[in-house]
Amino acid sequence: MSAAYKAEGNAALSDTATSGLPPLPPSLSAELDGDVAILHLARPDKRNALNDPTVLGLEAFFTGLPDQVKAVVLVGDGAHFSAGLDLSELQERDVAEGIHHSRMWHSVFEKIEFGRVPVVAVMHGAVVGGGLELACAAHVRIAEASTYYGLPEGQRGIFVGGGGSVRVPKLIGASRMMDMMLTGRVYDAEEGHAIGLSHYLVGDGAGLEKARELAKKVAANAPMTNFAVMHAVPRIAEATGSNGYLTEALMAAIAQNEEVAKERLRDFLEKRAAKVEKNR
Ligand code: 1HE
Prior knowledge:
The chain has helices at 3-9, 52-63, 95-113, 130-136, 153-156, 164-172, 174-183, 189-195, 207-220, 223-238, 241-256, 259-269; strands at residues 28-33, 36-41, 71-76, 119-123, 126-128, 140-144, 148-150, 187-188, 200-202. The protein is of the alpha/beta class. The chain is globular, with a radius of gyration of 19 Å. The structure holds 3-methylmercaptopropionate-CoA (MMPA-CoA). 3-methylmercaptopropionate-CoA (MMPA-CoA) binds next to strand 5 and helix 5.
């Protein structure tokens, strides 16, 4: 990462020290709810547009989480999740600067996707451009009814740069992504849910509560299982079958060897553990 990005990102950090969470720029805020950290995109006057300090603040947050945090909820303040890249920063970058800027986003979003703890994103209002790219780096996505998805890069004369061309097709297919970018097609919350952009669809204002509920469940899993889900599942999905089977076998053996796994299996066999039940 370039020193210039670092310097800008460290400007005017907020005081999250009392919670043990990393210091953040003013465009982000965070609080702890037990073992779940709630991270807010906190720049509603600019529709949570992602400028460099914000993106670098995301990196500081996800690389500096204290051990007690077992899951993160990511939510946007105001009427929109995020309007994507801060277009006011998109000055006349030359080719090399453009490449480094995009690679900086890649590096930060990789720290979310392949970080230490799973992330539950709450989406509402505009989830567009880099905002959709950010949401796609989370592991579980909840959409409130107001959510709409767009990739307006085509209209702006630019291209995705935050990993969207890798992550979005994995959710909805390259064909749908091409349509979104070429025609400016916008999916509403229900359409987005039907094609796989969200895992859960809830009413307006209900997203954060649902996210807390899901994040608590995630946080209660054995840490090695969460690690395997985050780090092994997407890589196995990209591997050849033969490599995938071997990686899966190794991961399964490592997870089952953990003391917490042995305890949980004993709990089930001795009738102390919850059964798998149908949703009521
Ligand atoms: C912004 C941005 C932004 C708003 N960069 N400042 N993203 C886009 O192309 C989406 C552009 N934004 C919009 O289409 C609309 O702002 C929204 C639909 C998200 C919200 O509309 P609205 O009516 O609620 O807000 P607004 O009046 O348009 O914007 C409020 C303020 O936020 C205004 O600033 P102000 O100083 O005049 O008050 C806007 O200029 C500002 N604002 N969005 C900068 N994006 C790694 S590559 C990723 C590539 C991309 O993400 S491309 C997609 C960019």
